[in-house]
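Reopening this one. Same input as before:
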Amino acid sequence: MGKKRKHSETAAVAVPKKDEAAPERPARTLLGWKDKSEVNGDDSQVKDVELDDSPIFRNKEKVLVTCSRRINFRYRHLMLNVVSLLPHCKKDNKVESKESKGATLNELVELKNCSSCLFFECRKGKDLYLWMAKCPNGPSVKFLVSAVHTMEELKLTGNHLKGSRPILTFSTNFEKDAHWRLLKEMLLQIFETPKDHRKAKPFHDHVFVFSIADDHIWFRNYQIDVPHNETDKLPRGGLEQMNLVEVGPRFCLNPIKIFGGSFGGPTLYANPFYVSPNQVRALEKRKKSGKFAKKVKAKTRRKMHEMSNPLEPDFTITL
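Same output, byte for byte:
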């Protein structure tokens, strides 16, 4: 066995480490790394520059996308198509569609460090509702989704790079009323990809089109097709040679109500022209029941006519 070292010897061997902080990583921009002179300067100079310069706004928008349980397969594919179009979104497990879903979703948004939420709620396996909310203070909008066509269903020829930033275009109808302006701002904040997001590509090659027709919001996604090659490049501003090729998906949003809070609160706007799908199905059943009642009445009238006009007996003998 070796001899134990004395405490004085161990103290002499141990060398105290210097408390040196790791050098800060230089900030990266789209044009490359910043100059070393800017990064390695004195801390006092950097603080003075930060105080003198105006604060720069950085978009840190993150969207939580989830759905309710017992959702239809077509609506689930639509949700996955929306997730593929938004590189700044996060997915989560299905949420039970109950009265307390608002508190659950607000808690999930906070845990995922997001600022917005898209909740696809399916009822009766037929009707799809889309909740679009800014968490945790609101506002929030409830839509009825119709005319759903997924990318797998359409099989269009358009194609764009996954993760690229879209150009958002809105029709002029969004400026006519206050509730349309509010919906435009919410769509702009949720569907616009932040510039410096780590999963986003720093260029634009597709367009999101939001247009209003019959008090409904129609969504389309187009690829920007630029026909050029190495020898014949497209000059700047040559928009006449650019084409738009549809990619998908397609869906229509019918606004039902706008709430002041997140998934609830005071009602800011209610659509007076909204008719629920249950009422539509009830009217169709009444029409079918009306057809059956007409058939029964016609049958009884035919019997009464035969009883009131009996046929004379036929005594002719056939050989």
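So the earlier flakiness isn't reproducible anymore. For the record, The radius of gyration is 33 Å.
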